[in-house]
Write a structure and sequence with these properties.
The complex is a heterodimer of chains A (112) and B (112). With 112 residues, chain A is mainly β. Chain A has strands spanning 3-5, 10-14, 19-21, 24-26, 33-38, 44-50, 56-58, 64-68, 73-78, 87-95, 99-102, 106-111. Chain B is an all-beta fold. Chain B has strands at 4-7, 10-13, 19-25, 31-38, 42-51, 54-57, 64-66, 76-78, 87-94, 102-103, 107-111. In chain B, the strands form two sheets. In chain B, strands 2, 4, 5, 6, 9, 10 and 11 form a seven-stranded mixed beta sheet that branches. A four-stranded antiparallel beta sheet of chain B has the order 1-3-8-7, with no helix packed on it. Chain B starts with a strand and ends with a strand. Classes of the chains: A mainly beta (112), B mainly beta (112). The interface between A and B is medium-sized, with 24 and 24 residues.
């Protein structure tokens, strides 16, 4: 069965610092990968997606992610975090075109 | 742009009661999903549908039922509510294989 792991349950960074959220997946074919963000009390919003081609993908709000097949990873990065980035972040993989498998999420706190 | 609409937003049920969580999308998406979100567990797939008249079980289907009589609507039925069904429920939809999912705002359900 496909699975997604996000090793960090909770990360705290200072405003203006760089950020990297880790995501590893287990998948038998070329994966379609996604990062979503969830603000408190809200639904999930797509940050970015990887389908094929360039392994570095750009998303909204200044986020980017890099697909590394050799490491089965799809880590999310941002060079300078803003206080409004505090939220929960979910990595997900398309499950053979049927549905999506999500990781457990990483909660990001931002210190002023 | 309505997107994915879920009703109600909040609900308290007593043990043994039944209810239906409504989900509608206006994007003409073929695929629809129901997930539940519990703290630290990410999103778990309850049921999904790849088109009108077609539904299938996800990872945690017990205690739930769905139907998909139209492309737009995908209601989730809870029979004999139990405290273990206290959760936040998200409905989502996607156009086709390999495209991202769009999420509703969620229904927060408490069973007491």
């Amino acid at each position: 069965a496909q699975s997604v792991t996000q090793p960090d349950i909770h990360i705290t960074v200072s405003e203006g610092a760089s950020l990297e959220l880790r995501c590893n997946y287990s998948y038998g074919a070329t994966p379609y990968l996604f990062w979503y963000v969830q603000s408190p009390g809200q639904g999930l919003q797509l940050l970015l997606k990887y389908f094929s081609g360039d392994t570095l993908v750009q998303g909204i709000k200044g986020f980017e992610a890099e697909f590394k097949r050799s490491q089965s990873s799809f880590n999310l990065r941002k060079p300078s975090v803003h206080w409004s980035d505090a939220a929960e972040y979910f990595c997900a993989v398309d499950n053979y075109g049927q549905n999506f498998v999500f990781g457990p999420g990483t909660r990001l706190s931002v210190l002023p | 742009n309505a997107g994915v609409t879920q009703t109600p937003k909040f609900r308290i049920l007593k043990i043994g009661q039944s209810m239906t969580l409504q989900c509608a999308q206006d994007m003409n998406h073929n695929y629809m999903y129901w997930y539940r979100q519990d703290p630290g567990m990410g999103l778990k797939l309850i049921y999904y549908s790849v088109g009108a008249g077609i539904t299938d079980k996800g990872e945690v289907p017990n205690g739930y039922n769905v139907s998909r009589s139209t492309t737009e609507d995908f209601p989730l039925r809870l029979e004999l509510a139990a405290p273990s069904q206290t959760s936040v429920y998200f409905c989502a939809s996607s156009y086709k294989t390999g495209t991202e999912a769009f999420f509703g705002q969620g229904t927060r359900l408490t069973v007491v």
